[in-house]
Amino acid sequence: MAKKNQLAELSMGELIEELQATKQEALNLRFRNATGQLENTAEIGKVRKQAARINTLIRSKEIEAAEAGN
Questions:
Q1: Are the C-beta atoms of 53 and 22 separated by less than 8 Å?
Q2: Where are the domains positioned within the chain?
């Protein structure tokens, strides 16, 4: 999982790949929590926030691209 300041430097394709990996990690954490194998449940929230950060960056890059096209 990339750090916040490293995410801003990624390209759109890399952000999408990072988002897919983060969503997969969130899924794995939810399964581990459901089966009682997850000790630190705060990890679920951290991963969800990371996914939200990535989505925000993707959207801001989309907006920049749209404004540059006008």
A1: no
A2: 12-69
Q: What is the dihedral of CA 43, 44, 46, 49, to 10 degrees?
A: 170
The CATH number of 12-69, from 1.10.12, 1.10.150, 2.60.120, 1.10.287, is 1.10.287
64 in helix, strand or coil?
Answer: helix
In tens, the pLDDT along 33-70 reads: 999 999 999 999 999 999 999 999 999 999 999 998 87
Measure CA 28 to chain center.
Answer: 14
Flag whether the pTM goes above 0.90. Answer: no
Work out the angle at residue 18's Cα, subtended by the Cα atoms of residues 14 and 22, and round it to the nearest 5 degrees.
170
Identity at 49, one-letter amino acid code: K
